[in-house]
Design brief:
The protein has 213 residues and is of the alpha/beta class. The protein is 39% helix and 20% strand. The chain has two domains: 174 residues, Vaccinia Virus protein VP39 (Rossmann fold); 34 residues, no CATH class. Helix 3 crosses helix 4. The longest helix has 18 residues.
Length: 213
């Protein structure tokens, strides 16, 4: 039975291309991004139509260059306005939209609810962006519906399951175990803002990185 992947936050298509190439033939991939020129990073929050149009053009150009444009359905709308454009359920949800608390929480909550039992949710900038971390603490750490499978740097993986009792407590404890990584990333950001790059390297910032993502 064909499945469905939903990506929230595609920017210029790098993750979209990875998801499309990794998916089996017949899997539908829906990429949701309004390309409004905002929420592109901590220093580019406000909308900018010209910047958004440039992102939109680059997104499709990159998909064409990778040979996958015809296999991706792009919904150019904010994620919370796109719920009616995508049939539920989906099997894989990749959350990388706006990192502020309210939109991050809404994406995890409302799109997460549409993930099939046994399906996967990937959350980018977990244990890194403050808004995403607050949404995790509110929705995922105490959740009885999402099992935490671990993370690779700031990409956290969850599986839709029913949890109860001690299993739920263990699941919460595993997630809270990642808080030192969040604190470390926060200290690196402070060091970079204060132009203390040497301190940032001591905290784990790799050479060439501009931000601890």
């Amino acid at each position: 039975m064909p499945g469905r992947i939903v990506e929230i936050g595609s920017f210029r298509g790098r993750s979209t291309i990875v998801l499309r190439r990794a998916a089996a033939p017949g899997i539908e991939l829906v990429a949701i991004d309004p390309h409004g020129g905002g929420d592109r990073g901590p220093r580019e929050i406000g909308a900018d139509a010209a910047r958004g149009d440039a992102d939109h053009e680059a997104f499709h150009a990159n998909l064409r260059a990778a040979g996958v444009e015809a296999e991706v359905r792009h919904v150019r709308r904010p994620s919370q306005d796109a719920l009616g454009d995508v049939q539920a359920p989906h099997d894989l949800l990749y959350v990388d939209g706006a990192h502020r608390y309210r939109p991050a929480r809404a994406d995890i909550e409302r799109w997460g609810d549409r993930t099939a039992l046994g399906g996967t949710m990937l959350v980018h900038d977990a244990y890194n962006a403050v808004g995403v971390m607050l949404a995790q603490l509110r929705l995922l750490v105490p959740s009885s519906r999402w099992r935490y499978l671990g993370r690779t740097r700031s990409l956290a993986e969850y599986r839709r399951e029913d949890l109860s009792g001690a299993d739920r407590l263990r699941n919460a404890a595993r997630q809270l175990g990642g808080l030192p990584y969040f604190v470390r990333n926060g200290l690196i950001k402070v060091a970079l803002v204060l132009r203390l790059r040497r301190l940032g390297r001591r905290l784990g910032l790799a050479d060439g990185d501009e931000w601890p993502y």
